[in-house]
From TrEMBL:
SUPFAM superfamilies, alphabetized: ClpP/crotonase
Family that this chain belongs to: Belongs to the enoyl-CoA hydratase/isomerase family.
One MF term in the entry's GO annotations: catalytic activity
UniProt-recorded name of the protein: Enoyl-CoA hydratase
Native organism taxonomy: Bacteria, Pseudomonadati, Pseudomonadota, Gammaproteobacteria, Lysobacterales
Coiled coil: none
Pfam families: ECH_1
Length: 290
């Protein structure tokens, strides 16, 4: 991965594998570390909680530093699974919607929103966040990637926001983050058509920053880090300027996700059966990848 000798950070939950290169100020977070045959590479409650716990821990450590020597921290979100992330936990959604459990659905969605917002604001420590997409990023998985400062994707990965297939919309940051990269009417079209695109297509749209052949994603991330290291103060200042000029606030994301929850609770059995079929397809895909 690099010339230094990184070490794994053990004080994280079982769904997350973390490698900290503290001398270089680079922190790698690999989702789905608990992958087993049939595993669905989605945002389970356990994964969301583990990401939030690590974000808080790392953010506090980075904020507490007194001598940074002009270093710009980099946090990389990646995956140990066949996919980057296939989105929200549809099985959980179905159970909560059928039970009319608004509180439970809102609690899950709110945790997801806190996670993407933390990546968006660099853990409140002015870190530069990078999504490394080496497999499909759909729904909430694509939203998580969009929340990062830089998206590096390998060719052949599929990306998109297919929630409209079950009459829902992506409500955990998609619109807010898309509108920072493309025009609002294009963002709405992407969300309401529900099409899935290749990483090559997304690069042409301006939604993927760096596109590389399969197997070259890590090297591309390292190049992004090297480029930022040449201009650490300018890059850090640009983070602050972006937050002033184009803020995406936690309050904005929370209000949108409440609309998502209320919309989800209106779904009928036909939409829920579509979710059920997608869950079964994810399980089959996980078994095939194993």
């Amino acid at each position: 991965m690099s010339a230094v000798h990184p070490f794994s950070h053990s004080n994280v939950g079982p769904t997350l594998r973390v490698i900290e290169e503290t001398l270089r100020d680079v922190y790698w977070c690999f989702m789905h570390a608990d992958t087993l045959p049939g595993h669905r590479a989605c945002f389970t409650r356990a994964l969301v909680d583990d990401i939030l716990d690590y974000q808080r821990s790392l953010g506090m450590r980075l904020q507490a530093r007194t001598d940074t020597n002009g270093s710009l921290p980099h946090v990389v979100l990646a995956s140990d699974s066949h996919a980057f992330n296939l989105g929200g936990d549809l099985d959980l959604f179905c159970r909560l919607i059928r039970a009319r459990d608004r509180e439970g659905l809102l609690a899950y969605a709110s945790q997801c929103v806190r996670g993407v917002h933390a990546f968006h604001v660099g853990l409140n420590a002015n870190a530069h966040t990078i999504a490394l997409i080496q497999g499909d990023a759909l729904g909430g998985g694509f939203e998580a990637a969009l929340s990062c400062n830089t998206i590096v994707a390998e060719e052949g990965a599929l990306m998109g926001l297919p929630e409209v297939l079950f009459d829902l919309f992506p409500g955990m940051g998609a619109y807010s983050f898309l509108c920072k990269r493309i025009a609002p009417h294009q963002a709405e079209k992407l969300m309401l058509e529900g099409n899935v695109y290749t990483s090559e297509d997304m690069h042409r749209m301006g939604l993927v920053d760096v596109l590389v052949p399969q197997g070259e994603g890590v090297a591309a991330v390292e190049e992004v880090i090297r480029a930022n290291r040449r201009i650490p103060h300018a890059r850090a200042a640009m983070h602050r300027v972006r937050q002033m000029a184009q803020p995406v606030t936690l309050d904005e994301l929370m209000q949108i996700t409440e609309t998502w929850v209320d919309t989800a609770l209106q779904l009928g059995e036909k939409s829920l059966r579509t979710m059920d079929r997608l869950v079964r397809a994810q399980v089959r895909r996980g078994k095939a990848a194993a």
